[in-house]
Write a structure and sequence with these properties.
It is built from six helices and twelve strands. By secondary structure, it is α/β, with parallel strands linked by helices. A hairpin with a 4-residue loop joins strand 9 and strand 10.
């Protein structure tokens, strides 16, 4: 989805197909959200598009959302952002990475910078509102771009369901409260929603089709 001639929001599905990653670019500058897959594949994407990586952001610390982040951050000498409550998960899921043939995150990985609720400028004139959404993980985050009416939910909420809460640190009550908090923001129905997995939706679509998206 392209919002104008300069700013682009692009959902990418790098192999192995699993996680919805997002690239936001302005001119040649770019940031990556939920860098799943291999760092080498991401490097090819950046080169092919002529993009300069400026930062990496993660909705939460599960391996299928951060697998490429530490290596990319080191290779391009950029910052990687993750809520500190999820730092303990960074090395937790290497067995899952084995299942997908993805290299392990090694003990000497480049450490992420803590990211918490607030509003930041990720690229010139592109502001992002950060919402804390614990439940799937203790440090889960959602990202909202008000100027472009785009929301990234991570694994807090899917098209017709919600994220798991039976992994380490998961909490059902907190997850339901995070979903209620999102609903109560009363975002415009046309807001485009990128979920951590599965099809993209809109806020209006979720109101009609996701029985858990309610106050």
């Amino acid at each position: 989805m392209q919002k104008n001639n300069e700013v682009k929001f692009e959902v990418l599905h790098l192999p192995p197909m699993n996680t919805n990653s997002l690239v936001v670019s302005c001119g040649t500058d770019a940031v990556i959200f939920d860098a799943w897959g291999k760092a080498s594949d991401w490097e090819k994407v950046l080169i092919e598009r002529g993009l300069k990586l400026r930062a990496i952001y993660s909705t939460h610390g599960h391996p299928d959302h951060i697998s490429a982040a530490p290596s990319l951050a080191r290779a391009f000498n950029v910052d990687w952002y993750l809520n500190a409550n999820d730092n303990y998960l960074i090395g937790w899921g290497n067995e899952l990475l084995d299942m997908f043939g993805i290299p392990h995150i090694h003990a000497n990985y480049k450490k992420p910078i803590n990211l918490s609720a607030g509003t930041i400028e990720i690229l010139p004139d592109i502001n992002m509102e950060i919402m804390e959404s614990p439940g799937h993980t203790p440090g889960g985050l959602m990202f909202y771009f008000p100027k472009y009416k785009i929301l990234m939910t991570g694994d807090t909420l899917f098209a017709d369901s919600y994220g798991r809460y039976d992994f380490p640190g998961g909490n059902y009550d907190e997850l339901m409260q995070s979903i209620r908090n999102l609903y109560n923001l009363d975002l415009d129905d046309e807001t485009y929603v990128v979920h951590g997995h599965g099809m993209d939706t809109t806020i209006g679509w979720l109101k009609k089709h996701n029985p858990y998206f309610k106050a």
